[in-house]
Amino acid sequence: MVLAGVFYLETFIPLARWSDAVGGSRPFTMLGDGWFDVAIWWFKFIALIVINLPIIALIIVGFRSLPLGLKAVVARQSMISTPYVWLLVFFLVPFGIVLKISFSDIALAIPPYVPTLKDGFWTMLFGLDLENYAFIGAGAVFASFAVIVMSIIMFQIVYPRVRKALIPDARYGVFDSAAAALTTLAVALVNVALIVAVLALLFPVLRAFVDIPDFLYFAAYLSSLKIALISTFFTLLIGYPIAYAMARAAEHWRPTLLMLVILPFWTSFLIRVYAWIGILSTEGYLNQFLLGIGVIGEPLTILNTNIAVYIGIVYTYLPFMVLPIYAALERMDDSLVEAAEDLGCSTFSAFWLITAPLSKPGVIAGCFLVFIPTLGEFVIPSLLGGSNSIMIGKVLWEEFFNNRDWPVASSVAVILLLILIIPIVLFQRNQQNEREMDG
């Protein structure tokens, strides 16, 4: 094992330095400059595998000789650790790379930032700084901090107490559910109002002490958040009735309806978005149809506006809302609704008392599946929104590929990820508190 570790240090650390220096393309080609180094690297890589084969064999033999009970424990722990290994390899490692780049400085090099591993580990470590986060704007960082702090105060402290005071014995009744929904909406509106007031009062003070060079990123964050929230709302508004109709359809029709929902995935995402350009343009099918039936006197300007972005997002992500809601509704016991109606509930009351609460997990999953990718969407606002639509995905594209400012783009991506993670954690804690209060 020690020998394998030595080979690892002698193989992958120089590889990382060299790959960092040449842009990460040389180890996978046998042509061009450095072919001898490539051959040496592949030789070391194969040697590393050969050296580890006896170690792997010893592990397998040792596992086979374990007692049956201990085997079960090891196997169970291995199965449990599998998703965590997947999370480490496919999320934490790439995030660590992006985080490292966000602390670097732009440079005319390949890759376009310094320091890199070719300068040495300690040189790279001490060469990192927070300049990119300052460039994004202290205002954006301060605003994000204000949103986080205010949300924690409102939804972790204020909201549970207000809800408990208004609904001391909260159950899934018509009045209780409506009161809980109105309470949540009121607290959210108060939260937004307080955040706006804090930012309006403290930004002038902040500008007196801190240089705030650019509000582009802050504006892009707010625009992305607004578009994602509105799109998620309309997707839920359209997707829930579709899922409900599918779940209430005859048994032999459900596979066909499910196939129709999944059918758009068989076509390229880019082609589907391009199709909406032909529909929403001034000379598109929608305007021609409305002009033909006399509803409008002149073509509507829909393309290159936020309305077109909303339409494209709702159309694209509608299946992600329909499928989890449909799964939740299909698992529901229909006898519960029948029992409620037998006890005198109207159809609407039975839906509000039984169906809506039981479909809540599907609604939450669908909203997350729509909101999170929409927040970083790039293709739809670029093609349908044009230059009038500012979203953080477009800003990232501009910084990465047009300006080639990888450090700033990485900083924007890191902040976006933090903005996404924190509300999810807060929401989960809020859901747990509600379950404790309702239980």
TrEMBL record:
GO terms for biological process, alphabetical: transmembrane transport
Subcellular compartments: Cell membrane
Database matches in Pfam families: BPD_transp_1 (PF00528)
Transmembrane segments: 39-63, 84-113, 133-159, 180-203, 215-245, 257-277, 307-329, 406-427
UniProt keywords, alphabetically: Cell membrane, Membrane, Transmembrane, Transmembrane helix, Transport
Mode of membrane association: Multi-pass membrane protein
Major subcellular location class: membrane
Residue ranges occupied by any ABC transmembrane type-1 domain in the UniProt entry: 221-427
One Gene Ontology CC term in the entry: plasma membrane
InterPro entries: MetI-like, MetI-like_sf
Top-level taxon of origin: Bacteria
PANTHER family documented for this protein: INNER MEMBRANE ABC TRANSPORTER PERMEASE PROTEIN YDCU-RELATED-RELATED (PTHR42929), PUTRESCINE TRANSPORT SYSTEM PERMEASE PROTEIN POTH (PTHR42929:SF3)
Family note: Belongs to the binding-protein-dependent transport system permease family. CysTW subfamily.
Protein name: Putrescine transport system permease protein
Species, as recorded: Octadecabacter arcticus 238
